[in-house]
Structure formats: structure tokens, C-alpha cells
Amino acid sequence: MKQKLEEISRKNVLVSSLLAQSASNSGEDEPFSTARASVSNLIGADGPGGEGSDASNPGNHEPSQSLPARNTKLSLLDQHSELKKKAEAVKENELERQLKEEEKILESVAEKKALMAVSELAKGIQYQEPIKTSWRPPRWATKLPESAHTRLREKFRIVVEGESLPPPLASFKAMKFPRALISALKRKNIRKPSPIQMQGLPAILSGRDIIGIAFTGSGKTLVFVLPLVMFALEQELKLPFSPNEGPYGLVIVPSRELAKQIYEIAEFYSEALASASQKSSRNHSNSHSQPLPRLRAALCIGGVSVKEQMEVVNRGVHIMVATPGRLIDMLQKKMVTLAVCRYLVMDEADRMIDMGFEEDIRTIFSYFTGQRQTALFSATMPKKIQNFARSALVKPVTVNVGRAGAASKDIVQEVEYVTAEAKIVHLLSTLQKTEPPVLIFAEKKADVDAIHEYLLLKGVEAVAIHGGKDMEERSRAINEFRAGEKDVLVATDVASKGLDFQEIKHVINYDMPDDIENYVHRIGRTGRYGKKGIATTFINKSVDQSILLDLKLLLVEAKQRLPPFLAALQTEAELKALAAGLDAAAAEQGLDADKGCSYCGGLGHRITNCPKLEAIQSKAASSVGRKDYLASGAADW
């Protein structure tokens, strides 16, 4: 044994000397090869297989196959290029694998059941062609080459998808609206269409189904209200609505306040048409033309007497604006029918689905008896919602002005680090940044009440709304705030969805919402119709890091100033790898990758680590086996 150890030691010394010799002659190929062969022979002599390591061929002292010969004919630069190509190939494979994984996740969370009526699904009814209307674009617009339409869309950053696209029109006159309606628009200081209206109005007037996505304050409401008024008027002139007939057009929204606002807009333009027509007929008393009829609109929301709402319905209703809960109640009690309804709008569609109204919407769809034109609108509509919505649409036109979920460039976004204890005191100094009116958002009802009480004690003229207050109190608060009688409105997210306060100078987020989409909707109450506004957000260590990262990238996208504590959240290299790297690499390879998360629209993460999706899945997993069989709608027969 001792002799064996001495032999191994002697061979180790010899190996070292041979390696040193090869290092000194590194420029010469032959000494290096000789040294390597000698080393291989020495190792092979007493390797794992004992004497003559190859048990099947003892005495074979050729160099081992496990040590490939170095390709000395390639320079170091060429070797580096080869290694770089291999690394890029591996990276491409990883990118494809990541995108495939994201597609699988999106497919797994996507709704398998189409957003259609139960009777249509059961009978296999599928509408192939959009509804035909009497409206046609001007001849001069149809004769223009497609390149001219493309230039106009590019000028106003309008991205449009779909078949047989209608041309964009840059004036209300070209859209063939009556003079009375154009005059009413001018009274509201609206003289030319916004980008979403340029493409959205011709699409809806043509009878096309539409998904409209544009930043807050861009005029999405008029895109569906003006055609609805014209279609309803056309139906009334052809054959007047009889008692208990209608509605022809239905608008579904997630909140009572938004429903009331849309109802008032529809009433304004309906009244404008009727009054202008009556004035014209009086001025031309010898003319045989009849004045236009006054359209009837109904507001169906919770917290208001059903009896009042039914008074309009009983006379025959042309336009109905409703929240899902009250509408289902009236449909189930046969107070309202959708037999003649051919025009359906879902405003803030993604928010309704997120808030759990999805089954309610399916139920409403089951009351339709024929094909209808469907329009969906929102400022934030992730790919998941768009894919789901398309199942209800026929050859839809998707009109997108800016990225879905992007904040308006007219809003100056400021983020301040404020501890939880100091927030309510810091609020007073923040209010002094601008003159009133100011809107303050808080996540919890208790916080809204506490802020409201504190501001009243400090002598600030403030009102508050949240889901715990009755409808009369909420309506009074909003009316006082709109009229300028109160300087500050404190609210939960019930005031963030679509409500239009034209003169808001400043929005304060008392706390950062759990969802970046809610943040975009909140700050969108200011900076509307091209006016500038300020949004201040308080954050502290209680805010989840993924939400902060989404916020940071949203600020970067809007070219806003980053506070130091937010800039230090992650290094620039990590941010690029996280948010931009995958998107850019996919674009280079021609692969389809959404910017940010395709589930919630956040820029700071991908769907593979979406906190919103994780929270929903955790909630669903915790409720397994705990179904309440006595709950409404829980029966499965």
C-alpha cells in the first residue's frame, strides 16, 4: 500500500512538470499536444479502472475521448462570436418558452363560456354579419385612398383593428348629424370630435360592434350616446313606441353615479333635438313638416323608487340606462322586456367583470330575442377582457387611442412618501397645491368618513360619498360638488369609474389602490378634455412592491418625475429585463407579446407573477368545498 501511494505521488509531480512545460510553450501546438497526451497516459494508467484504465482494452494509452482537442485554428474573437450565437439561441428558446407559458396561463384563466344568451348557445345561433343601418359615410370619404385614412389615424394615434373598417371623419358635419345636435355640442364647448370619436362614431353609425379603448376624459360617452339618440329617433319616426314597449337602446354601467350621469347626457341631447325642431316648426308655420318627437329615457338604478322608474317605462321607453342588479330585478319581474332592444352598450366593461357582475351580464343577455349591436368602452381593458368580450361581438372593430391602461399625458402625477400616522395631517398642506375643486380618494369607507370629519373640523367645505350612504345623500353630495357649493369631495372608488367632473384641478389618492387599473381611473377625474390637472398619491411601506413597480413604470411611460424612493426600487437593468426586455425581444422576433401583464395591464410584471391573478386564485382555492347551497343562484339544477 505504501509503495502504491509513493507511485501516485511520483506521477503527480511528473504531471505538474509536464503542465508547466506546456504553459511555457503555449504558442507551439506540438509540445502542448505531447504534454496533454503524456498526462492522459499517466492518468489512464492508474485511473478508475485500475492499471490500464480501459478494462476492455488494457494497455490502450491513447488520449481519452472525454477530453476534446482544443480547436487551435480559431482565433479568440471567432470563438467569442460562436459562444455569443449559442447564448442568443438559448435566449430565444427561453423567450419562446416564456411566451408559450404566458399563453397557457391566459388560456387557463379565460372564460370558456361565450358571453351570449343561453338560448343562442343552446340552439347554436351565431350571427355572421353586423346589423345594417341607414347611415352611410360621405361619398368623398369613401373615394379617398386607404393611405389617406391611415395618415389621419396615425396623426391622431388611432390604432384600429377589424374587417372592412369605416373611414375616420374629422368633423361632426361629415358624420351627418343634424344641425340641432351640432349646436347642442357647441353649447357644451365641443366643436370637433376627439380621436376616439373620429373613428368610433362612424363605426357605430355603420352598425358595427365595437371595443373602444381610450384614456380618461377623451369623450367615450358621446361615442355611444349620439348614435343611440339618432337610432332611437329613427325608430320613433318610423313607428311610434306604444305603452310598455322598449327600450330600443340599453346602457349598462357598474355604478349608480355613472348611470345618472349618462342618463342626464342622453336627456340633454334628446331635449336639444326636440326643442330645436319645435322652434323651427313655429318659425315656419306654413310648412307641413311635423316637429320631432321627444325621446323618453329611463334611469333604472338601486336606491330609487321602482314606481318612479316604471312611470317612464309604462309610456314606452327609447333609451334605458341601468345598473346590473336593478335591471335583472325588473326583467325577472317582467316589468321590462328586451324584445325590441337592438343596441347594447357596456361602459367600463372591464370594471363590471372585475366587480363580479359577469354572471349578471350573462343573465341579461339571455333576455334578448334577436341580434343586437354591442359596444364596449373603457380606459383600461387588458387582453383577457378583450378576448372574453369578443365572444359576444360580430366582426368587431377595436378602436384604441394610446395603450390600454395608460394615463393621460395632461395629468402631472406626483408621488409622496407619507407614513400612515402623518397622512391625515399632511392632507391639509397637499390641498393647498391648487385651488378648488379637489377630489380625494380613499380605499375604505371608514377612512372616507374620518377624512370628511377632519376637513369639516378644519373649516373646509367638504362632502363625502361611499357605498354605505343612501342614494339621495350621494346624489345631493355630487350635485353640490358639481355646482361649486362644496370645494372638496371625499370618495371611495364609486366616484372613480367614468364620472365626469370637468373643472377638477387636483386629485389626491389618500392611499394607493391595490390595482393599477383603479389608480388610472382615479387620476383620470382630472386632466380631462385637454385641460391640465395634478394627481398626488400618498404611499408608504404598506404598499405591495409589485404595485409600486407598476406605478413606477406608468410614471416612466408618461414621462413624469420619479421620486428618489421610487427610482431606487430596482436597478435600471432589472427594470429593463422585467418590463421591456421580453417585449422588445418578442418584437424583434416577430412574436406577439403584450406590454406588461395581459391579465391586469400592469407594466411592472408579467402574467406569470401577476399579484391580482394570484389573489383571485387563492380566493377561489380557499372557497373550494365551502359552497353555500342556500345562497341565491347556488342551485345547480
What kind of sheet is the major sheet?
8 strands, mixed
Q: Averaged pLDDT, please?
A: 79
Strand residue content: 5-15%
Low-pLDDT sequence parts: 26-40, 42-69, 571-580, 584-593, 625-637
How far apart, in Å, are the first and last alpha carbons?
84 Å
* H/I helix tally: 23
- Strand neighbour order, sheet with most strands: 3-10-4-9-8-5-7-6
Specify the structural class. alpha/beta
Coarse morphology? globular
Question: Can you describe what's shown?
Answer:
With 637 residues, the chain is of the alpha/beta class. Helix content is 46%, strand content 11%. The chain is built from 23 helices and 16 strands. It has helices at residues 2-24, 29-45, 76-109, 118-123, 139-143, 146-155, 179-187, 195-205, 220-238, 256-283, 306-314, 324-332, 349-354, 358-365, 383-390, 423-431, 445-457, 471-482, 516-523, 545-557, 564-567, 572-588, 611-622; strands spanning 46-47, 50-51, 158-161, 210-214, 249-252, 297-300, 319-322, 343-347, 373-378, 397-401, 411-417, 438-441, 462-465, 488-491, 506-509, 533-539. An eight-stranded mixed beta sheet has the order 3-10-4-9-8-5-7-6, with helices on both faces. A six-stranded parallel beta sheet has the order 11-16-15-12-14-13, with helices on both faces. Helix 8 (195-205) runs parallel beside helix 9 (220-238) and helix 12 runs parallel beside helix 14 (358-365). Mean pLDDT is 79; it is low at 26-40, 42-69, 571-580, 584-593 and 625-637.
